[in-house]
Automatic annotation (TrEMBL):
Residues 245-453 form the Metalloprotease TldD/E C-terminal domain. Residues 35-99 form the Metalloprotease TldD/E N-terminal domain. Residues 132-238 form the Metalloprotease TldD/E central domain. This is Metalloprotease PmbA.
Length: 460
């Protein structure tokens, strides 16, 4: 069995569970009124090649222990990777010392005990089909990476250089336990193949890539197809032309569209809300999107990239809408942010669990035909989002579309608007769902945005 594969996950989880109980008991002996422990182990293998040569072969094995204690509403945390008894005891003592010297925080403390996931759900870590070790030896990983890059370099004579290809595989196990008596187990694998290629030469060079990521190796795209897709995307970007500054429909390809949803999720997260650093303060229950638009959180999705029965505090996750009928249904809260806002945890400590945007249209080609004329955005650069006002301005590249067909590549443009107005102006969501992220969305068409390009361009 390859060294990066965890041979007996059940035994390792048993050991992590036992360790968590020892640390909780140590915290109680030191007078902590509440405590929580996270224990994790990770292994991996990653190889990188470039221009037909092996650059790196890296095997990893990491572990971590984090202890948080509460003395009333005073909190202290400490962590270690050293599993020796004296080091573990010192970690608990350090957390307790920190807590004794901090001030009371009325929002501090474990999540409410009645919100914990059931013992059965917390223990059934294989429930969502996320454990699929890849018996991949280093030599075979190198062969896959080389084949991926070679397929891309041979695809078109205009591919002149490469940023390389990579193959990675790994597994992780974790236990979260707290003094409510909750013990939750998690385990998952993740595998990837990627390639980045350079077309053209000199100032005309264009770099593009492609990658595949999955929990099971059989769900990955083939290495050769990834290389060819990277090459196809790089060649398609050659000889970009300018676009005149103006207002146009903007179609975000699925891989770019997930960033639009990411801005929404950030704005409705508890941390942004209680700090009043969100353009969606007091927006729950209001219409933000067209009345057909919907987003649902799906934490129990088989082979979902972030499926789990409980969040980072042990709170039970639930399948529930975030947006329904265009109306924002709820915020994304852990226990701390919920208390700061006078609300209840939504089971989102640590983030969301597989967000699904409902489609109302076909694939990218259908959306381009519906758009008729405008900009297809395939890549975004920079930050360019004011989280307090929602003002949006990001560098972008992609293609000019005329009569529903791609005409030529464009780059060096900026797409701008205000996120509230952009969300309200969404005309369609495609069914070409991007599955390489926990934000699962198809392409998104926005009826009109400001596109800043070259004032000397031909389009008007």
């Amino acid at each position: 069995m390859p060294a990066h594969v965890i041979a007996d996950p059940e035994t390792r989880l048993d050991a992590l569970s036992e360790l968590s109980q020892r640390l909780l008991a140590s915290a109680r002996r030191r007078g902590a009124s509440q405590a929580e422990v996270s224990c994790s182990e990770e292994t991996g293998l990653n190889v990188n090649v470039r221009m037909g040569e092996v650059e790196t072969v890296e095997a990893t094995r990491d572990r971590g222990i984090a202890v948080t204690v509460y003395f009333g509403q005073r909190k202290g945390s400490a962590s270690t990777a050293d599993l020796r008894d004296d080091s573990l005891e010192a970690t608990v003592e350090q957390a307790c010392a920190i807590a004794r010297y901090t001030e009371d925080d009325p929002a501090a403390g474990l999540a409410d005990p009645e919100l914990m996931a059931s013992a059965q759900a917390a223990a059934d870590w294989r429930a969502y089909d996320g454990w699929h070790p890849w018996m991949l030896e280093a030599d075979r990983a190198v062969d896959l990476a080389l084949a991926c890059e070679q397929a891309g370099r041979e695809f078109d004579g205009r591919i002149e250089n490469s940023d390389g290809a990579s193959v990675g595989t790994g597994g992780s196990l974790g236990v979260y336990a707290n003094s409510h008596g909750f013990v939750g187990r998690e385990g998952g694998t993740q595998h990837s193949v990627s390639c980045a290629l350079i077309a053209g030469r000199g100032e005309a060079m264009q770099r593009e890539g492609w990658y595949s990521i999955a929990l099971a190796a059989e769900d990955l795209e083939s290495a050769a197809s990834i290389g060819r897709r990277a090459a196809e995307r790089a060649v398609a970007r050659l000889a970009p032309r300018p676009v005149a500054t103006g207002e146009y429909p903007v179609l975000y390809a699925a891989e770019a569209a997930r960033a639009l949803i990411g801005h929404l999720l950030g704005a409705i997260s508890g941390g942004a809300l209680y700090r009043r650093a969100s353009f969606l303060l007091d927006a729950a229950g209001t219409q933000l999107f067209p009345d057909w638009f919907a987003i649902e959180e799906k934490p129990f999705l088989p082979r979902g990239l972030h499926s789990s029965a409980f969040d980072a505090e042990g709170v039970a996750t639930r399948e529930a809408p975030i947006v329904l009928g265009g109306v924002l249904q709820r915020y994304l809260l852990g226990s701390y942010s919920a208390r700061k806002l006078g609300l209840a945890s939504t089971g989102n400590a640590g983030g969301v669990h597989n967000v699904q945007v409902a489609a109302n249209a076909g694939g990218l080609d259908e959306l381009m035909r519906g758009m008729g004329r405008g900009v297809l955005v395939t890549d975004l650069m920079g930050q360019g989002v004011n989280t307090i006002t929602g003002d949006y301005s990001r560098g972008a590249s992609g293609f000019w579309v005329e009569n529903g067909q791609i005409q030529y590549p464009v780059d060096g443009i900026t797409v701008a608007g205000n996120l509230k107005q952009m969300y309200a102006a969404i005309e369609a969501v495609g069914d070409d769902v991007e599955t390489r992220s926990q934000v699962r969305t198809g392409s998104i068409l926005i009826g009109r945005m400001t596109v800043a390009g070259d004032s000397g361009g031909d389009e008007a």
